[in-house]
Amino acid sequence: MSQSTSSSPTIRVEYNDTIVRYFLLATMIWGLVGMSVGVLIAGQLAFWQLNLGEQSWLTFGRLRPLHTNAVIFAFVGNMMFAGIYHSTQRLCKARLASDKLSWIHFWGWQTIIVSAAITLPLGLSRSKEYAELIWPIDLLVVFTWVIFAINFFWTLAIRRERSLYVAIWFYIATIVTVAVLYIVNNLQIPTSLLHAYPIFGGVQDALIQWWYGHNAVAFFLTTPILGIMYYYLPKAANRPVYSYRLSIVHFWSLVFIYIWAGPHHLLYTGLPVWLQSLGMLFSLMLWAPSWGGMLNGLLTLRGAWHKLRTDPVLKFLVAGVTFYGMATFEGPLLSIKTINALSHYTDWTIGHVHSAALGWNGLMTAGVFYWLAPRLWNTRLYSVSLANWHFWVGLVGILFYTAAMWVSGITQGLMLNATTDGGNTLAYPSFIETIDAIMPMYHLRILGGLLYLIGFIIMAYNLYKTIRSGEAVNGYIEVPEEQEEDRQQDLNLVGTFLNAPVMYCTIIMLSALMWLFGGDAIGFLGLLLTIFFTLITIVHFQFSVEKWSDWYDKLQANLMPFTVLTLVAVLIGGMVQIIPLVTLGKYNNPTEGRVQVPYTPLELLGRDIYVREGCYNCHSQTIRPFLGETLRYGDYSRLGEFIYDYPFQWGSKRTGPDLHRVGGKYTDAWHWRHMLDARETSAGSTMPNYPWLYRRDTDFSVLPRRIQVMRTLGVPYEEDLSERAEEEARKQAEEIAANLQREGFGADPDKEIIALIAYLQKLGKSVDASERQAQLTE
Amino acid sequence: MNETPKPPENGPDIEVENLRPHVFDGIQEYDKKLPNWWLMTLYGSIVFSIIYWFVYHTFEIGMTPSEMLERREARAAEYLIESGLGAADNESLFQMALQPTVVDAGRDHFTTHCAACHGAEGQGMTGFPSLIDDEWIYGDSPMEIREVVLNGAANGMPAWRGLIGERGAAEVTAYVISINPSLRERAEEGDF
Questions:
Q1: Alpha helices per DSSP H over A491-558
Q2: Is the CATH number of domain A16-478 1.20.210.10?
Q3: pLDDT tens sequence across A683-726
Q4: Are residues A243 and B30, on separate chains, in Cβ contact within 8 Å?
Q5: How high is the ipTM of this complex?
Q6: Minimum CA–CA partner of A288 in chain B
Q7: How far is Cα A160 from Cα A162, in angstroms, rounded to an integer?
Q8: pTM for the complete prediction?
Q9: Distance from CA of A92 to the nearest CA of B (A)
């Protein structure tokens, strides 16, 4: 604790470290839960019998969202709050603004996690990845996040340190961006207390989901942890940060560019190609800004590398930052279209996210907590040797895991795309053949995950013993009683926006947009202007370095202007991509000649069951324009074929085959047998059994409200359909059941399996756009 | 910043060059130059992006994914004609049914794709027709059977063209002929 040397009277400010301790403990508990579920579902992929028979809530489709949400929001979330609350108080020389808000934040967040852990296995899911939580919990998330934001910004407002350190910049970016992403991606119209339809459908929903999904990775798993790195790494190494100007350049380029990269999750889908290209190119441009963070972390250790041998904290932090560097190299690589053609929908993606989650988030958590716990409980780390064991066991676990997924992903990707006979026949026609080929890798993955979990348990034990050996203490600082006011540093609204750096950025941005959206002549002019203003900016910068530096010094001493500029920087990318796609009317969109036929009431109910069971976790619904896919699955998917899909179900991983054109491919009887036991129809399948669908009655009573909401969303249902819906659904169910009965199956029209079959048989059956248009105008 | 540089707090081995004066909770910052290779990576990716946009979106020299698929499909179709794989007739299919290598290949396809519904012996099951009796919903000629295998049929039989291709369909047809007593007899007697 630093001592004040001035002679003026001082007061003692005690930090609120209690809340930090609570978040630390919550991190450890939820980390154990999230990782254990991870090992279980890794087991389910290798041994389908682990989808324990009758227990619907223990199937992969319902547990995988629990795993991802637990690791992202419960494990990393709580760790982030611990790190932010601890470091922000010290960087601001101020106690957290409100103890009450801190507690509301803590208990609100834990309530969200518990609600998620209950609702997701029950099948209460929105099916949007990492945004599966149903709307009442969404509201609680927004509320809690706002509480966090108020508490954080209020603390910043009463800070005794005028200038904002780089860690705080990253925290600010995190808080404002996650709020925007979460709210937009969760816009929905409830049909009941537990169910809602998203307001965007089809390709629009896909774009918004992955704008969110990709930037949840960016602003929930990356930026806050970078901020945390900027505080704890120089602290632990006792070395100055490598480069302040690198901090500036990589912070602003990172937050600006990250947002644009979302569409790389949708390459070769129905998303307009120009958006796909933007996603890929911005991902490539993101490589350097990401590595800026890694460099600043690793180069801070110059002259302190020898400490790695003795200090487990530094060992974890350095390994974490190194994994960050590897993952942020792999990310741009995977976003290159031709590489993505191989890697997407395979385990390569799974390996990629785990090298980031286990390597970057997990090891950073360990490093920070091994540093933090002895300080929060005023003691020494119980065992350095156990921390070293944790390090090596965990590291080997990560290497097994990611290596297994690389081999598995590349193997399966190559097999699924391979053709023979000059491109007329699939080289590996059976999907199951490709699963057999990668099964050894699935076993190795379980081992890797298990090792990592064991390492984490060692850490939990080590921290437990550390905590037991000490007692909770709060940090404090002596500060002068009266603060000097430094008016010189104030930046008003005009100063925020009307200055050379911001003006140049704006002009270059506008020129670039002209280039992007303008026709031939205007576009070319836009490009010339972009290059011209960029050169002017560079020249002007050379002459006015000091002035621009002074301005930035002022900016980082002014909270509101800094926050506003950050918000503007992150909003641009999303707006440029989303607004054109959403404002165009559905029929003005290029539908590529095909449009979807609205679902019948029964098919809609079946679809909601498909969503509930989490089928999207293993089955995609979009066929890419490759020979290997059109031969295997049928004609490639067109933009217009998803316009009534609320939410879209394109998925991101093919553990089983694509289902977009499964409609009509098999008989009802085939589906009946397949859902009861997939091995009956597809020997060697790893899909779970769904016996409860044959017992549970379809809830027809929800139909009127659901149809009404669909109409509100723009699905062209007839006005009175909501009244007739139940009757129509029952009629269709009876037809399907009668068909099955004729073939000797004891089908009951009231059971859920009938609705699901109705939905599956509708998939991919779109019609010619002009025909449909003619029908509608009649 | 108006502060004068403070002496390094982190010990005597810290170099003071480029050290910024401000200290945050004991953390100091250097202001080192950005590494040149890092800048080149950043500029390089920006230049690449501009060129890429020109090639694919301004001048549209590069092919879109669907154009690429069209070209590949055209090539595959050419191959089919040139290699003669696409041609088949009743006679050749009957003859193939007598060749063990062809029948073996057909059996492999059958076990993987067909047996689940038509039974391991082709005996069929509830809702799925037998292939070893004399009832043929879509005709009993080898070419008609091959057609159903390739393109599917109205009763829910899936199309297998994509999965097993022309050659696979011929092999499966040969296998089916070989396990159906009447068809097998015709093949053996040369009754085409």
A1: 493-497, 500-517, 520-543, 545-555
A2: yes
A3: 899 999 999 999 999 999 999 999 999 999 999 999 999 999 99
A4: yes
A5: 0.91
A6: B42
A7: 6
A8: 0.90
A9: 9
